[in-house]
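Task: encode each sequence below as structure tokens.

Item 1
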Amino acid sequence: MPGFCKSEECPSSHELLEFQNGDLPRTRGGEIRKHLVSCEFCSAEVEFYSHYPQEEALGESAESTEIPAPLFELAEALLKNRYADSSSLNVLLRESDELIADMR
């Protein structure tokens, strides 16, 4: 699915969660609503929050938690779309799956 990624123009996940919870000022909420019309990725994220409410807002506790290196590399690769060769991305996905399995 080409183009299905978050860009620098997208609202943060924190803002999208606040939008979903109705905690944004009216003006910013309107801006995000307009953005959602043209951004499938952010629309999917807001839809996710509507089906799976978050226990606490993405605040200080989430921001202070370090992302494990393989997950950070995967996110960076997806956001920058650096890996045209899917084999590199598949290696990162396997490493991330292994890390998640180890955490459980």
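Item 2
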Amino acid sequence: PDRAEIWVNATEAARWPTRRRFTVGHELGHLRLHQHHEATVWCRTGCVEEAAARGAALPVEEAEANQFAAALLMPARLVREHYRRDGDFSALCRRFGASGSAMGKRLHQVV
């Protein structure tokens, strides 16, 4: 973090291109939003999966980074515009390079 670098798992990135885009956006969110935190923010799969398994909310920093990535990759105005015009969920996912999960969450936020 002190070198302002973002590291992404290469195997995961190759396997899921849409997830790769969201992950990079998420990490940019940490870099921008949490750069002045005293403690370094480390994204670990276990942290997110553990919260999901308990039915708990994500840690605040993770939720903020997710929101940043969603806004960056799926701007609210454009998502609303294309959704109202086409109403085709699969087309929205392709247009914005998003997974169904990410697009579904974004639609619930902005429509």
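Check on item 2: The chain has a mean pLDDT of 86. The CA atoms of residues 49 and 66 lie 14 Å apart.
End of task.
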